[in-house]
Specification:
The protein is an alpha+beta fold. Strands 1, 2, 6, 7, 8, 9 and 18 form a seven-stranded mixed beta sheet that branches. The longest helix is centred in the last third of the chain and has 26 residues, at 487-512. It is globular and about 65 Å long. The structure holds flavin-adenine dinucleotide. Residues 14-20, 38-41, 46-49, 51-56, 161-162, 196-198, 206, 208, 212-213, 216, 246, 249, 372-374, 387-390, 392 line the site of flavin-adenine dinucleotide.
Length: 591
């Protein structure tokens, strides 16, 4: 065996955010003897879960109308939801949140002891989607979960970066990586593995508070041969351009308004009913079209919020409040001025994209489960309306329970010594070189290609092809030169590999979808519910990437769209605003 540390476990969990923690807890509760959770940083203090804004979309049984929630979530998911998954999600989300509350998460309550709730995006005024809120300091949820993982008897190893999955005869039998402080090689043999290492953002704005999520899970799963799905969609959103702060859902729920350079509240022109509370596919594209029309910079106006609203803002978004207070924007219970907002993105996996999983969270590889942002959020379709953080809790729990059952029933995992040697070579090679290129340099080169608005946010096939050529050039010319001075740079080197692959997948899969839906394609401006009610799958085959589309079983789903083609709603509205002068099968003509 290669020098380094070697471990054996029944269930290995990779990633210590909400999904990973929940998987470890539930695997133990299911009777699994040995559960090992490995985390690249410090479990409880890293990942998106630690810095999330505290808004949890959850149906309360008996209080909410499940049929209406199904309808709203499928419409917001633009009909690409896996409705079997969505039903499970709706039934399990509140019990999971209640459980975490019992473990110590403070949920906001009304004076008479009911759960306080704010209206969700794109929802019916009286009855539709509603959010619960947790309060307290940043990290309150993940601290509660860390304690519970330890109390469950699972073992946590922090500062371990996993770089490869081990497979034997198609079954996943563990993983390898290195210690982020000592650089020591780590090999773990596991009967079952849960991949819960988050997704990524190409290191653009929303890595608020953490930088560890860089599509490592996507890369590991893809290299091992697991299927990915929904990677044809990337997410983008308006985001504060002055400070790094999240929580737009909450801010908009409180009554914040977007205005353009002329001081015009423009969201009402794109969605007269919901305005800033519009579904994601409108909220993310309307500001983009305003910018395209030269009406930026855009601002978020919260100056009119009442004392009570600002008090709530402070309670639910303590990190934002601290930032705005330090900057002199928040004084007492008043927001003093408008904030400049721009677009952030693209993000592959913030919603929809990820490792393909069934309702047990099993991937297409035996022995491998995925949860949270690492998994495809198929319940939500092409939206995050079926709650990102709540999905991490629900899917984490499912992955842990089913991985434990698999570990109990499966044969001893077998490991190929030659593959461990190969993984060592792959994992440690940047440290073995005398010189070369650091990961950060490659990440910057990649950002220049994928972050500009008119590549993955506002799409056109020709521009995407050009970007793809540049990404493959980075892949072929720069990645082989990756160099690491020490374990810190080794982490960056692997993150550069993950980010380059994620960009290639997003572009290739995005080119495959020949319509507009969550993402507008100028060359295919119609939403096509005749030909494109399909999920796009990606898998490694040999040295190539296979991409194919599969029909949704829409015939047996409860919520169905009209089978027609229509102009993307934002382009329709942009016509009325004089931003678009003509549109047809040949594409969009801009004013
Ligand atoms: C600023 C912000 C605000 C948000 N607000 C909300 C909100 O209010 N409501 C909501 O529903 N959602 C919100 N979200 C989204 C939500 O936080 C995520 O969907 C959710 O936390 C994902 O949980 P996870 O466990 O899958 O991933 P994470 O919490 O990101 O955990 C992944 C973990 O894996 C570790 N890891 C990564 N790579 C490796 C590797 N190679 N080896 C080992 N470990 C690895 C990371 O260090 C990390 O700790 C927000 C996100 C952000 C960024």
């Amino acid at each position: 065996m290669i020098q380094g540390e070697h471990f054996e476990t029944d269930v290995l969990v990779i990633g210590g955010g909400a999904a990973g923690a929940m998987a470890a807890i539930k695997a133990r509760e299911a009777g699994c003897g040995h559960v090992l959770l490995v985390e690249k940083a410090h479990t409880g203090y890293s990942g998106a879960s630690c810095f999330a804004a505290g808004v949890l979309t959850a149906l309360i049984p008996g209080e909410d109308d499940e049929d209406l929630w199904m309808k709203e979530l499928v419409e917001q998911g633009q009909y690409l939801n896996d409705q079997d998954w969505l039903q499970i999600y709706l039934q399990e989300v509140f019990p999971r949140i209640r459980e975490v509350e019992e473990w110590g998460l403070p949920l906001r309550k009304t004076p008479d002891g009911h759960y306080a709730r704010v209206r969700g995006r794109g929802s019916h005024p009286e009855k539709g989607l509603r959010n619960l809120m947790f309060t307290g300091q940043v990290g309150v949820l993940t601290e509660v979960l860390r304690k519970r993982v330890l109390a469950s008897g699972a073992r946590i190893l922090d500062w371990i970066m996993i770089t490869s999955l081990l497979t034997k005869n198609g079954r996943v039998s563990g993983a390898t990586g290195f210690h982020g402080r000592s650089g020591e090689f780590i090999a773990i043999i596991a009967r079952a593995t849960v991949l819960a290492a988050g997704s990524g953002h190409f290191r653009c704005a929303p890595n608020t508070g953490h930088r560890m999520d860089n599509y490592d899970a996507t890369l590991m799963a893809y290299r091992a041969g697991a299927e990915l799905v929904n990677c044809d969609f990337t997410a983008h959103l308006p985001f504060c351009g002055e400070f790094k702060m999240g929580g737009m859902n909450m801010t908009v729920g409180l009554g914040a308004r977007f205005v353009n350079r002329m001081g015009e509240e423009f969201m009402g022109a794109y969605d007269p009913i919901y305005k800033e509370g519009a579904p994601r596919y409108i909220l993310s594209n309307a500001p983009l079209l305003e910018i395209k029309a030269g009406r930026g910079p855009l601002f978020m106006d919260m100056t009119h919020l009442s004392r009570d609203q600002v008090k709530l803002f402070r309670e639910v978004l303590p990190l934002n409040s601290a930032i705005l207070e330090r900057a002199g924007v928040l004084a007492g219970e008043k927001i003093m001025r408008k904030l400049e907002w721009s677009m952030y993105g693209p993000s592959l996996g913030m919603f929809s994209a990820g490792i393909a999983v069934d309702t047990r969270c099993a991937s297409t590889l035996p022995g491998l489960y995925a949860a949270g942002d690492a998994a495809a959020k198929v319940a939500a379709g092409v939206s995050d309306a079926a709650g990102a953080l709540p999905f991490a809790l629900v899917s984490g729990a499912r992955a842990g329970t089913h991985a434990a059952a698999y570990a109990r029933d499966a044969d001893e995992p077998r490991v190929d010594a030659a593959q461990v040697q190969e993984s060592w070579q792959y994992g440690m090679s940047p440290l073995q070189r005398d010189d070369g290129i650091e990961g950060d340099f490659i990440i910057e080169a990649l950002q220049e290609i994928v972050i500009p608005y008119e590549v993955l946010m506002l799409r056109h096939g020709a521009r995407m092809e050009k970007a793809l050529d540049r990404v493959t050039e980075v892949r072929d010319t720069l990645l082989p030169l990756l160099y690491a001075h020490d374990p810190h740079f080794l982490r960056l080197a692997h993150e550069a590999r993950s980010l380059v692959l994620a960009a290639e997948i997003a572009l290739r899969a995005g080119l495959e979808r020949k319509e507009s839906r969550a993402n507008i394609r100028e060359d295919y401006p119609y939403v096509d519910n005749v030909n494109w009610l399909k999920w796009i799958h990606v898998r490694r085959e040999g040295t190539g990437m296979r991409i194919w589309a599969e029909d949704l079983p829409i015939h047996r789903y409860a919520v169905k769209p009209e089978r027609k083609r229509y102009l993307h709603p934002c382009l329709e509205m942009a016509k009325g605003r004089g931003i678009v002068t003509g549109v047809g099968d040949e594409g969009v003509q801009w004013a």
